[in-house]
Amino acid sequence: MEEKSKIAIIYKSKYGTTKKYAGWIAIKLDADLYEISDITSGDLPDYDTIIFGSSLYAEKIRGINFITRNYEKIKNKNIIVFVVGLSENKNSTIDKVIESNFSEDFSNHVKLFYFRGALDYKNLGLLDKIMIKGLKKVLENKRLEELDEYNKFLLKNFYTMIDFTDKNSVIDIVEYVNNLCAKNE
């Protein structure tokens, strides 16, 4: 009997949304789950598949340097990255994230998934409140006809809890990983 592929899910979460997605994925894949501070580069060789998840801030993936710094150790493994942001899941968003965070070699070896997150203004830290208020000001300075439906929604619901998280959205990443593991067994 062949040994089952070992999967590590490593996440960095500031307000809990990425942690929620990481947990959903870990349950479905029977994977080991680590907050980024609880794993070292020495643990990575034990895994066949490494999934890293974090949030996006101005198209930058928080904590991705843990993976890129250890790329030489893990480049022969399945590497998947998922990011959580508020933007609608559009190919242009994914393309910008790849361009802003990955070298060409790294991007050719990594599969990226995007999940929509949540925003609860009253629970944000001071710096995040300032950034979000800046976004709101930019949107308010545009004419209404210049705004798409998503930005109109943001403006209307700015100070209320916005939650786009969806447990079913992890199905694609779970199927992708299961297919990879099946090929490797």
Descriptive report:
With 185 residues, the protein is α/β, with parallel strands linked by helices. 41% of the residues lie in helices and 22% in strands. It has 8 helices and 8 strands. The chain has helices at 17-29, 65-69, 71-74, 91-101, 104-109, 126-140, 149-156, 171-184; strands at residues 7-12, 32-35, 49-57, 60-61, 78-85, 110-116, 118-119, 162-163. The strands form 2 sheets. Strands 1, 2, 3, 4, 5 and 6 form a 6-stranded mixed beta sheet that branches. Strands 7-8 form a two-stranded antiparallel ribbon. The mean pLDDT is 88.
What is the makeup of the main sheet? Answer: 6 strands, mixed
Poorly predicted residue ranges: none
What's the total helix number?
A: 8
Kindly, what is the distance between the CA atoms of the first and last residues, rounded to a whole number of angstroms? 10 Å
Shape: elongated
Fraction in helix: 40-55%
Would you list the SSEs in sequence order as H and E? EHEEEHHEHHEEHHEH
Radius of gyration (CA) equals: 18 Å
Share of β-strand residues: 15-25%
Structural class: alpha/beta
Mean pLDDT: 88
Number of strands: 8
